[in-house]
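User: Continuing from earlier, I have the next pair ready.

Assistant: Great, send them over.

User: Here they are, in order.

Assistant: Folding the first of the pair now:
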Amino acid sequence: MPAKKVLRSFKPVVDGRSRVLVLGSMPGPTALKKQEYYGFSGNHFWRVMQRYFDVRGEPDYQGKIGLLLDHGIALWDVCATCLRQGAGDQAIEKPTFNPVPELLEEYPGICAVFLNGRTAEKIFRERFKNITLPAFYLPSTSPAHAGLSFEKKYRRWAARLSKVLS
């Protein structure tokens, strides 16, 4: 069995227009290799966003990032580093955490946090108890969360996006 190595998350995708911060847990192996948030093609995150914002075709990664920023959505992960073998959140060991409170202080226009999946929610609620912004659990866009169809995930994400971005 190969030794576990320290994995590092990405820098946040955020700018002064950001109103919502979407927090995941930690990028998976494919995302880390590609150096792209939600870089695994089976993850529904980009599909949800493109459908919600009525984007036709398949933009490249920079186009996807631009789409989010243009609509006030920032991205980051709760974990800064961890050990993990495989892609599953259950395999995350020895995590360190991103300075989410400092990011929120630096970008005061962010008025809500969306927690992409139970692991992100659990870590956020345990680690960042002093954050007073509304924080909403949303079903994981990961294909590992197969208990919900894409349609059900989409409807939950779309409902929350509509409430916060309107």
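And the other member of the pair:
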Amino acid sequence: MDTLRNLHAILAEADLEFGHRTFYESLRFAAFYAATGDDDIDNATDLIVMQKLLPKVNGSRRRIENVLTKLLAVSDGSEAAPRLPVTHSKLRRMLGALRANQFVSFTE
């Protein structure tokens, strides 16, 4: 779960990092998700980010915009379709709201 470590480093820039419990729960979720027959780690990571990480992200444009931009780059990947499509869509909406209102939270 190198992606989770990368996300942790990005979130830490705005003091939004997550702890060991969230990391453990994320690994546990990924294991259960794989047991359902879908072993695509990106699908599991997409759901983990939406359920456990993004709800913590909120704040002013000055504090959050750089973090959201970096998270969007991680979710985008290098292919035609986003690597983490659900997360990518949410981050685009959050960035739009942030730029329009100078503040953003996970809830819309």
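Worth noting for the second one:
Strands lie at 59-60, 103-104. The CA atoms of residues 82 and 89 lie 9 Å apart.
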